[in-house]
Amino acid sequence: MTQLTSGGDVRLDRISKTYGSFTAVHPLDLHIPAGSFFALLGASGCGKTTTLRMIAGLEDPTTGTVQLAGEDITALPPHKRPVNTVFQSYALFPHLDIFENVAFGLRRRGVKSVKKQVEEMLELVQLGDFARRKPQQLSGGQQQRVAVARALINHPRVLLLDEPLGALDLKLRRQMQLELKRIQTEVGITFIHVTHDQEEAMTMADTVAVMNGGRVEQRGAPAELYENPGTTFVANFLGTSNLIEAEITDKSGGDLVLTAAGGRLALPADRCSAPVRTGGKLLVGVRPEKITLAHAEDAGSVPEGRNRITGRIVDSSFIGVSTQYLITTPDCPEITVYEQNIERDARLVPGAEVVLHWNPAHTFGLDAAQDIDAGTELDEEAP
Amino acid sequence: MSATATSEAPADAGPVRKPPLVKPAVRKRLVPYWLLLPGILWLLVFFAAPLIYQASTSVQTGSLEEGFKVTWHVQTYWDALTEYYPHFLRSVLYAATATVLCLLLGYPLAYLIAFRAGRWRNLVMILVIAPFFTSFLIRTLAWKTILSDSGPVVGALNSLHILDVTSYLGITEGQRVLATPLAVVCGLTYNFLPFMILPLYTSLERIDPRLHEAAGDLYARPLTTFRRVTFPLSMPGVVAGTLLTFIPAAGDYINAELLGSTDQKMIGNVIQSQFLRVLDYPTAAALSFILMAAILTMVTVYIRKSGTEDLV
Amino acid sequence: MTALTRWIRRNLVVIAGLGTLAYLILPNVVVLVFSFNKPNGRFNYEWQRFSTDAWTDPCGVADLCGSLSLSLKIAVWATIGATVLGTMISFALARYRFRARPAVNSLIFLPMAMPEVVMAASLATLFLNMGVDFGFWTILIAHIMFCLSFVVTAVKARVMSMDPRLEQAAQDLYASPAQTFLRVTLPIAAPGIAAGALLSFALSFDDFIITNFNAGSTVTFPMFVWGSAQRGTPVQINVIGTAMFAVAVLCVLVGQLAGARRKRS
């Protein structure tokens, strides 16, 4: 194993946390390579923050070890770990001004002349003029930047971010997402980011681990997770998915042939995460934006080789860039479809009979033994 | 896995250190007890133990010269009750009246500070607290001047014939206010009013003023809004305020001593004179024990009834 | 007329509130006015004529200034004692879970729910039985005892409302547990501690009932006033009362102004 000198790779080995009879984190293995932007994504209570706090040393793991750059740091108290945290709602010291907040870590480590470093750091986050203000006098976005500066000035090997943007409004959040991404690329240290906001995780991280019930459900690059979710939870929590119960009828070449919603659907075998057995059940998934709608009168013009289902529009709502349709079909739950607003077909109104069709390559298959609604009601978390 | 030390780590923060062999968990568990020890010991020795001591004193007999002995002389309680029950009743009556008056007088002021004072809020607050800083005995003596027989207050009440009415009701006597129940209750009300206003203000201040607008929006008239929204929400303050007023008022003997006559003596006066003048310690102990038991019972029932047990 | 009644109705709360405020302030005004009185007899209850005699010679009455300085001395020590002990208890209660918690909470609450005369008599009984000499020390012990609960209440509220993440942030930024306490916890808890200390000082300085039982022949300022109510009230009492009032208001105003200026800069 090679070791980078500035190595900030984090390795969690069978780490778990229980409080009494409640298991917050089940034994978990996770390797986060140095220099990566890693996101732990999940709803509240899924164990993501507990995991982060075990890395920071603010929580003692019940079992397992935390390694940083190959060193076992499990028993080190937080103030001896070369790891810094940007806390949820920032935890800026209200009795100290911005300068002293940022200088706090340097002073505790006995650094004598902090002035230059702090000023440079404040310039980096564009708060040079605010050095003598108190945290309460800054806006949410400014406080957030102070929290980042206060952590980064210590040159930690790993920066932990606990819902760092949760308290900001949508527009500022977008802006800060890009800002944080820029800083991470610039300083090159490992970022581990905990969030419940799937969009935030996908925008910023190069690897996302989706957590649910104290376990990692799936990890991978954002696009990979989105395009090919491995569980119903991931399928529903990351964006929206249409999940349809299906039965495997045949296996031809690289494709599975399924019966679902009164029709036949094709699914590439390598996009199926469930065990395949003829006659077995599956959940077939497709993302709403992958589906094209055609009015029933145009059914003949749908190209061959595409998966198709017929149904009726029950609701449509105009969202701006797209229109969202809700469609009922005889044999499966309502299907959601997003159509880009490029050439709108005036016949596509509630009550219209339609054909839904999509490229089989966008279909994914999931184990039918799971809760089909897992992860649907969870995507908004109270701040 | 190799464990080569890395070089660019911050000076003191390198993970190179060996983890401590024994976790300081046991020591950590004792920390709260070390923090509690001196203060709790103080309260046990100088608050709890004296109460027990007093309980034993109340069943002792003897005299100053020969010393007192525990003889389980429960008769003391019976004697004390039969002899001083008017003082007990008077204490409860005066304290209850003063508490109600404090609530009636204090509520508008607390409300004023919380919702209507605007930029004057701090000033009004100072004016409520500031009198505290003049010794309350001096301020109580000032009431002797205010209510004096030849003063303007008594003069006005006299010319309006109010004193005739109050004399008829038995709360004043003749043409004077001093040395009557009215003066004592007036002094008690005055002395404990801030203890009513402050908790009331604290709980009123927490109420979102938009709730008033919401109630108005939902067709509640101002009085209904108060009855259905504001007052229920201020209940914690009402409960805390009434307790903070009633308890000290029931045990008070200063107002009765300075503003009343022998006919207005409260149970505090009796305990004080038994202890400090008559030197009948068993009787003083029995009386204060009865007072304590009575107040704790009343307070417990009151807290249960009002349903706010999170006062502690 | 209708406009007037409407105005009165709308501002009824304000009128009633100001009435109560007047009731609260009136005795202080009387104390102030009568500090310039020149009474005929021994008692200063009726207005005779204007004089500044008492103001020019505030210590002109035997024992008055001695009792005042004794009260100040006791108040300072009681404040220090109660604040230190009370703050320690508050931290234990706010920061740790332990089995004796409910018992400790009750022990803190009870002194506040107890009529002073009961505490006073029982403590004096204990001292009496143990043969302790009444005086400075017995007063101080008693004052620390009854101030303690108030300090705990004030400090505990502040520590409990403090975001635990602030201390975690300090540890995360390389502060050892001791440094975390000194640099973060203590400064943030300071307003609560100050409030508790101020309350202790006021309670101790002004206490009469508990002191009355536990002072022996020692005379604090409230006891001096009590005694003079029997023997004759010197005008100097009003001078001291007014001066205390003025100093307190001045302190609060200065504090407010300083706070306002800090906010502006």
- Average predicted local confidence, pLDDT of chain B: 85
Helix content of chain A: 10-25%
Going by CATH, the architecture of the largest domain in chain B would be Orthogonal Bundle
Q: Which two chains have the most extensive interface, and how many residues on each?
A: B-C, 87 and 85 residues
Given as residue ranges, the uncertain stretches of chain B (5+ residues, pLDDT < 50) are: 1-23
Low confidence ranges of chain A: 1-5, 379-383
Sheet of most strands of chain A: 6 strands, mixed
Based on the coordinates given, report the CATH architecture of the largest domain in chain A: 3-Layer(aba) Sandwich
Shape of chain A: elongated
Tally of individual helices of chain B? 13
CATH fold title of the largest domain in chain A: Rossmann fold
Pfam families (chain C): BPD_transp_1
Keywords (chain C): Cell membrane, Membrane, Transmembrane, Transmembrane helix, Transport
Main location (chain C): membrane
Protein name (chain C): ABC transporter permease
Tell me the layout of helices and strands.
The complex is a heterotrimer of chains A (383), B (312) and C (265).
Chain A: E1 10-19, E2 22-32, E3 37-41, H1 48-56, E4 63-68, E5 71-72, E6 83-86, H2 98-108, H3 115-124, H4 140-152, E7 158-162, H5 170-187, E8 190-195, H6 198-204, E9 207-212, E10 215-220, H7 222-227, H8 232-237, E11 242-252, E12 255-260, E13 263-268, E14 281-286, E15 292-295, E16 307-318, E17 322-328, E18 335-340, E19 353-358, E20 364-367
Parallel strand pairs in A: 3-8, 3-9, 6-7, 7-8
Antiparallel strand pairs in A: 1-2, 1-4, 4-5, 9-10, 11-12, 11-14, 12-13, 14-20, 15-19, 16-17, 16-19, 17-18
Helix pairs in contact in A: 2-4
Chain B: H1 25-58, E1 60-63, E2 67-70, H2 75-116, H3 121-129, H4 136-146, H5 152-159, H6 162-169, H7 181-205, H8 210-217, H9 222-233, H10 235-251, H11 254-259, H12 267-278, H13 281-306
Antiparallel strand pairs in B: 1-2
Chain C: H1 2-10, H2 12-34, H3 53-56, H4 64-95, H5 101-109, H6 116-130, H7 136-160, H8 164-172, H9 177-206, H10 209-214, H11 221-231, H12 235-264
